[in-house]
Amino acid sequence: MRTPGLQNFTLPIYYLRHIADQIGSMGGDRARWLAQNQMTEAQLADVTLDIPFATFRKLILDALDITREPALGLLVGERLGVNAHGVLGYAALNSGTVRQVVEMFERFMRLRTPLVTTGHELHGDQFRIVFKEVIPLGDIRRPLLEAVVLSVKNLVDAVTPGSRHVNRVAFGFDAPGDVALAHDLFRCEVRYGQAWTGFALPLEAVDLPLKMTDPTTFAEAALICQRELDKLGPHESLGASVRRLMLEKQNGFPSLQVTARLFHLTSRTLHRRLMAEGTSFQQILDDVRHRLALEHLKAGALGIQEIAWALGYTDLANFRRAFKRWEGVAPSQVRAGPDKEKRPIAEPQRGA
């Protein structure tokens, strides 16, 4: 089955430079890595170059093959300092609070990658920064999410020096064989097989004033981010934009008519353009519902009836039928065990 909108994604080149540097530092042949994908060193220096998603995916897979390093995503994420995030990182560095840092990434993450979106959730006394795939990442999910989560977590650490507010990292995929390395790099508890991906810090720390804040510099950087975002609009496929909208409004999905109006289109034009991208409004909605249903079930906080309502199903039987079509089993069969969230894979090393 073809993933909707993938053929319309292009990605900026800058993160690939860090992957190339990591390959080189491990003794890998970066020139061969590039040549396998019809690319050159000169192209890595071209900040205006965008590459198709298919090429990006193959570069990641080839890098994993050349280095024989399953934790490549973590190692690249560790290389991505504040400067790697461009003006967005500069704005974050001058933010007034951690909440302001998070809000900047929620607004402008697309400036760095169109593949992942960020948001936040309150969970008891914890403030969670949550990362979601805009499109299913498949076989590059682990390295990409590990790199993104680690780099953003390190940025939060950089704006709160010495505080170590981040106390938990979570990934929605199974534990790899190198959990100890993840703990060493994240310097806090890391849990796998969770219903969310991201990291958490105490709610009480979110609005504490940051020492490095510079309101004037922050405002200038935020304005530059907004201008860049305004220029970026046409480069994201319409299907990806619709999917992003649904993820942002998951407590009440907009109808086809409302979605079309939000994009200043007629319903017929929206339908036609999505069809040209190899997808449809209903297919995108179905995919988002599928993903969110799995997240809710694994979290175990809502009953099946509540999940059905949250996803817009007025008839529980319709939700059950849809879920069985997606997963081949009833929703009750994938519900998380009662201690899923409570049981870490391993404890972080003391003194980390």
Briefly characterize the structure.
The protein has 352 residues and is an alpha+beta fold.
Give your account of this protein's structure.
This protein is α+β, with helices and mostly antiparallel strands. The protein folds into three domains: 1-69, no CATH class; 82-236, no CATH class; 239-334, Arc Repressor Mutant, subunit A (Orthogonal Bundle). Helix content is 50%, strand content 9%. It has 16 helices and seven strands. The strands form two sheets. It has a five-stranded mixed beta sheet, with helices on one face. The chain has a two-stranded antiparallel sheet with strand order 1-2. A hairpin with a 2-residue loop joins β3 (116-123) and β4 (126-133). α5 (72-79) runs parallel beside α8. It is globular and about 55 Å long. The chain starts with 9 loop residues before the first strand and ends in a 25-residue tail after the last helix.
Largest sheet strand order: 3-4-7-5-6
Uncertain residue ranges: 1-8, 337-352
Helix/strand order: EHHHEHHHHEEHEHEEHHHHHHH
Percent helix: 40-55%
* Shape, principal axes of CA atoms: globular
Structural class by secondary-structure content: alpha+beta
Beta-strand fraction estimate: 5-15%
Largest sheet: 5 strands, mixed
